[in-house]
Amino acid sequence: MSVLPVKPALRHGVPAWTSNNQELSSTAQHERHVSHLIRQEGRALRNETTCQTNWDETDTNQRLSDRIWDVTQWRDALDLCAKKVDEEMDALTLCKEQMEQALASTVVPLEVGTECLTLREGRTGYELILDPVDQELKTEVALIQRVQQTLQQLIDKAFEHLCVLQENRQQLTADLQNKMDALDIDMTCLSLTRKSPQISLKPNPIRIPSGSCTPQEWLQFSQYNVARSGEAMHLSQQMREEMKLTRAQLQNELDKQRSATEFALRKRTHQEEQARDELEWQIRNTENEMSDMEGDIKGLDADLQAKTASLKLAHTRLENRTQRPGMDLCRDEVQHGLIYEVHQLESTIVSLKQKLTEAQNSLQRCKLHHSRMLQDLSRKQQALSLEQRSLNTRTRLLTPLQNTDRPPVPLVPLTNSSGRSHLQLLAQ
């Protein structure tokens, strides 16, 4: 088997070989030097970036801790303020309920005053007068109506301020909930490490979210919420004090007027009782006088009849003596006596008739006046009965306007948007 001949390679000289070896050695040394420099620079960069990264993470953690402390402080401040708002709302609601009870307690006095005025309109004749009782009752009714108007205005004002407090509490609730959510997020961020499984790269993480605010705006927002709530609570406290003071003043005015009205009514009743007793006494005396007068009239009539008989006797004697004959028809002492007797009897009869007429007229006047007194007595008894009914009606005034010693009616306070009367937010 024959072998093919090999083409001879290019032959280099010894100098070229030596030069190539030197070039390889120098290049190797240079590359090693460059590599060494790069390795040293890489180590320095690693150390520097590691320190910077650790420092940045530590600084970020510290800032997160500081931010968590700030948010925690404001969360506690908002929670405390919200609790105070709840307490103030409960207090104002209780005060409002007391005012409503006070307003409801004025219904009966107004009905009583109106009923008393209506009852006293049933008086007749001279008993239907504009006396102090009418004036006091009208004053009392007008006062009760003014009290009702004042109480209703205070109740409306309290309700409006409760709405303001409710709005402030909702704002505090929202701000507090935001603080708790932000606190939960920051605490979660603080708990993350480089070995946490939840970490990952995010697209454009350094973007500024829409709706972001500056720290100054954040601080001013919470300060404004707390300050506004504090101002609303201060106004609520002043309102409660004003309501209590007004209720006490109105109660004093009502008590004073009620005492004046009842005093005037009792005084008028006493006066009417005195007038009734006086009239009854006058009626009894008039009846006695009428009885005596009737007896005297009978006596006068009997005496008049007797005097008429005596006059007839005297007339008959005089007439008979005119029949005497001759000189016996003389004007003797008997004649003069009979004539004198006739004149006396005629004068007596005239006087008796005049006195009888006067007695009869007086008796008639007594009877007429007796009838008037009986009618007036009937009116006085009716008026006294109406006054007594008015006094009995006023016994319904048993519930005072300001009676805070008894247990109040169970109240239903305003609730927040979640349906709870107190702020009950769970910390995350």
UniProtKB/TrEMBL annotation:
Composition bias, Polar residues: 395-405
Region (Disordered): 395-417
Entry keywords, A to Z: Cell projection, Cilium, Coiled coil, Cytoplasm, Flagellum
Coiled coil (UniProt feature): 236-303, 342-369
Major localisation: cytoplasm
One Pfam family from the record: Tektin
Annotated compartments: Cytoplasm, Cytoskeleton, Cilium axoneme
The keyword Cytoplasm is assigned to this record: yes
InterPro entries: Tektin-like (IPR048256), Tektins (IPR000435)
One GO term of the biological process aspect: cilium movement involved in cell motility
The keyword Methyltransferase is assigned to this record: no
GO cellular component: axoneme; microtubule cytoskeleton; nucleus
Family (UniProt): Belongs to the tektin family.
Designated name of the protein: Tektin
Lineage: Eukaryota, Metazoa, Chordata, Craniata, Vertebrata
